[in-house]
Design a protein that fits this description.
Mean pLDDT: 86
Strand content: under 5%
Structural class: mainly alpha
Oligomer: single chain
Shape: rod-shaped
Length: 93
């Protein structure tokens, strides 16, 4: 069986309109995107660490007093509202 040689320029022109949603990029642009991603990942890690520092003291205190049936916590509304605001500033800010 003999091979048929096709004019690749014509074949490529036939399918030039098909778009799969991607484009080519150069190495410099690629590296800048990767660097930006690394910064974003580190930023989110830092934010999560800050959220942890806000939430874990509360949970730790609850755990330490788990054997006590009643929690005395006067004036908790402003304290809780302030903590919620801090958490929202980290997670949504």
């Amino acid at each position: 069986m003999s091979e048929i040689k096709y004019d690749l320029t014509k074949v490529l022109a036939e399918y030039d309109g098909d778009d799969f949603g991607f484009t080519a990029t150069d190495e410099e642009e690629y590296n800048s995107v990767i660097a930006e991603k690394d910064e974003t990942v580190q930023e989110y890690k830092d934010r999560l660490h800050e959220v942890e520092k806000l939430v874990l003291p509360f949970l730790t205190k609850l755990l330490k007093t788990a054997d006590q049936p009643i929690i005395k916590w006067p004036n908790r509304k402003p304290i809780l509202e302030a903590q919620i605001q801090k958490i929202l500033n980290l997670t949504r800010g």
